[in-house]
Amino acid sequence: MIRIGDIDIGEFPILLAPMEDVSDPPFRYVCKLFGADIMYTEFISSEGLIRDAAKSVKKLDFSEFERPIGIQIFGHDIDSMVKAAEYAERANPDIIDINYGCPVKKVASKGAGSGIMNNIPKMVEMTKAVVNAVKLPVTVKTRLGYDGDRKDIVEIAERLQDVGIQAITIHGRLRTTRSSVPADWSLIGDVKHNHRMKIPVFGNGDVLDGPSAKYFRDNFGVDGLMVARGSYGNPWVFKEIKQYLTSGTLPVSPDIHERIRISKIHLSKSVEWKGERQAMMEMRKHWSDYFKGFPNFKPFRIRMMQTDHFDEMQSIMDEIGETFDGVQPI
Questions:
Q1: Of all residues in the chain, what percent carry a pLDDT higher than 90?
Q2: Does domain 3-247 have CATH number 3.40.50.720?
């Protein structure tokens, strides 16, 4: 059984990655329905949180159904990160997670996210300060290194473990590596097989389905896997991965009616959390993924992108169900 602090998270947990503008409470809800073992909030700016910025504070929201859940924070200033961790702890999550992996320029250029990998002593100091500031277990999500000349993750993982983190998730790319380049799992395996490592080591990067999950588990020995892009429009991926790891078989692909059922749940939860106008706008990024591969779907997609009304969207989805009944995605 894998544990983070006192939290049991299964024999081989499958985690939902923290993704900006994707892994909000409505999306996390539908992923939990299909077996995500642990999830994290979208990453939250430490500076925004301690200033009570509405957008940052809103990201602290989660439901009891989502547990165990971690609140993920990022920042470049140690004092601000400590205060943000204390603030996040008051929301009563199960875990505080530190983002040392975001490669976005406006984050990394300030020495936050993956940018802090250019200063390992500060990374260690910041982590120690956060660990000491909260009672909850602290975890870290990071990358292989700052750039091709500094693939320091084996050293980093050891040093972060030594100052008290309870688990580490490693994305198999550098700060400078684009997602179009295949993830390099060899160093993730090196971290896991380092005899000094005692905490869970989770792998992330190109975990897209059951077969890829089995490959990474069997070849690199990690304690669990984190899914990011593979979950887009596909909360069923958690069920698929678990079934494939257990039996070597793939479940039947969700048909149009199942896709509509989950889409409606996702939309309803989004409206409940954000209000109709904002939910209808922000759900637009999900429709192409939910209905990917259905032939001649473009006219429906255009209508879904244009409507601002919940009731109209319900009618459109009912029409989609009738039109594509019995049709399998290509």
A1: 93
A2: no
Cα–Cα dist 328/59, whole Å: 36
Find out whether 224 and 2 touch, Cβ atoms under 8 Å: yes
Whole-angstrom distance, CA of residue 109 vs CA of residue 13: 33
- The neighbour count for residue 186, using CB atoms within 10 Å, is 12
Q: How far apart are CA 161 and CA 268, in angstroms?
A: 41
* Residue numbers annotated as active site: 102
pTM of the model: 0.95
Interval 22-52: pLDDT, tens: 999 999 999 999 999 999 999 999 999 999 9
> Which architecture characterizes domain 256-323 according to CATH?
Orthogonal Bundle (1.10)
Using alpha carbons, list the distances in angstroms from residue 83 to 4, 45, 61, 86, 134: 22, 11, 18, 5, 10
SS (H, E, C) 130-199: HHHHCCCCEEEEEECCCCCCCCCHHHHHHHHHHCCCCEEEEECCCCCCCCCCCCCCHHHHHHHCCCCCCC
